[in-house]
Amino acid sequence: MLDRLKIGAAAAAAVLLAAAAALLATSGCGSSTPPAPPPPKVTVTSPTTQTVTSYLDFTGNTAATDSVTLVARVEGYLEQIHFTDGAEVKQGDLLFSIQQSQYKAQLQQAEAQLAAQQASLVHAKTELGRYSELVKEESAPQTEVDRWVYERDSAQAGILGAQGQIEIAKLNLGYTKITAPFDGRMGRHLVDPGNVVGGAAQPTSLATIDRTDPLYVYFTIDERDLLRIRAEHKDKSRADVTNESVPAFFGLLDEVDYPHQGKLDFAALTVAPTTGTLQARAIFPNAAPGILPGLFVRLRIPSAAPEDALLIPGEAIAFDQQGEYVLIVNGEGVVERRPVTTGAQVGESIVVKDGLGKTDEVIVAGLARAIPGRKVTAERAPAPQPSAAAAGTGAADAKP
Fold first, then answer.
1. What is the CATH architecture of 100-175?
2. Class of 56-63+211-302 per CATH?
3. SS3 category, 1
4. Longest dimension (CA), the chain
5. How many CB atoms are located within 10 Å of the residue 380 CB?
6. H or E element: which one contains 268?
7. CATH code at 43-52+306-396
8. Contact yes or no for 251/259 (Cβ under 8 A)
9. How far apart are alpha carbons 246 and 303 in whole angstroms?
10. How far does Cα 366 stand from its chain's mean position?
11. pTM surpassing 0.70?
């Protein structure tokens, strides 16, 4: 019995020792530090250098270079319309015909009056010669000579008056044929054939014709932008900016970029004191199929000469209450916040005017994992292709 008790006690002691060892083992595992995770991966790139032109952007309206309302200058029945509404016409094309019979008769009357006055002049000269000889022979009084001098002079004046009436009659007859004053596009006709048109009291409007090639684009420019353009493009021989050295580009709302090129040709004489702006105008070629007047367009004018600039992808730019910034990876692999000043947009890239150097590594992907002050693992992004818009009309100045 005593031996059995000893064996039981020994077994219990062994169980307690095993439990204590397991407890110690468990306690030792809980106090060990797990390995730190690796720094997050980000994608970086360095700024690229390209030649960029800065532009000013405006909104403008297209307008015809010439717009004329055709009116009936003489009274009569409108006989015929010789064009289709909206058609393109050439200078001199016949557009409207007004009944001519009345004005042909007036021309004949004027010509007959001229013939009568010419006959009176011949008769007066003949009689004046006869009586002049008779006076010399003292066979006629001097009063007869004086009378025929008067008749001769009156006939000469009558001839001048008749000639004037002929010219007026020819003009009125010519006004019955209304032709296009220039190459352009016709609007709709406002009067149908058979109506009486014209009259001295109130001329009748018949239609409108617009010249759309070339085409005007009107826009307003503020004082600061005007001074920037003048400083860059000023012609020393002129006081304004309307010279051929100032190009302009525009695009319609459904067009990509600014495919239409022209130049500035007019600026108002004064700046409006209430708004600090003035009206300006650019002129563009507009061959068929032409752009219609009255459309809203996006207008772009270069504000500076082309220059080398640093560009970074647009997705690298971030904003907060302090302004624009980018995240870079320094030489120790630590993320830094770098405030920047941006400029023109060139394709999908942004010009950085200040805040970055050529060798800085800018984070362009993995921004959510990049925390300023912490280390990251930087991977280089593929080198971007230079944008064709950098040297052309694709670069737009970011207006302040």
1. Orthogonal Bundle (1.10)
2. mainly beta
3. coil
4. 204
5. 10
6. none
7. 2.40.420.20
8. yes
9. 9
10. 41
11. no
Domain residue ranges in the chain: 43-52+306-396, 56-63+211-302, 100-175
Q: If you search the block for the tokens 């560009």, which residue do you land on?
A: 311
Q: What share of the chain is helix, strand, coil (3-state, %, to 5)?
A: 30, 35, 35
**H/E element, 313:** strand 307-313
CA dist 269 and 140 (Å) reads 76
- Buried b / exposed e along 214-244 (16+ C-beta atoms within 10 A): bbbbebebeeebbebbeeebbeeeeebbbee
Quote the Cα angle for 221-222-226, to 5°: 75
Q: What SS3 state is found at 197? A: strand
* Residue in 247, 275, 249, 276 with CA at minimum distance from that of residue 260: 249
**Under-50 pLDDT residues of the chain:** 1-2, 4-7, 15, 24, 27-28, 30, 236-239, 388-400
Asked if residue 313 lies in contact with residue 351, where contact means CB atoms within 8 angstroms, the answer is no
The tokens for 242 are: 């309307």
**CB–CB of 78/191 below 8 Å?**
yes
d(CA 252, CA 61): 10
Which pLDDT does position 136 carry in this prediction? 81
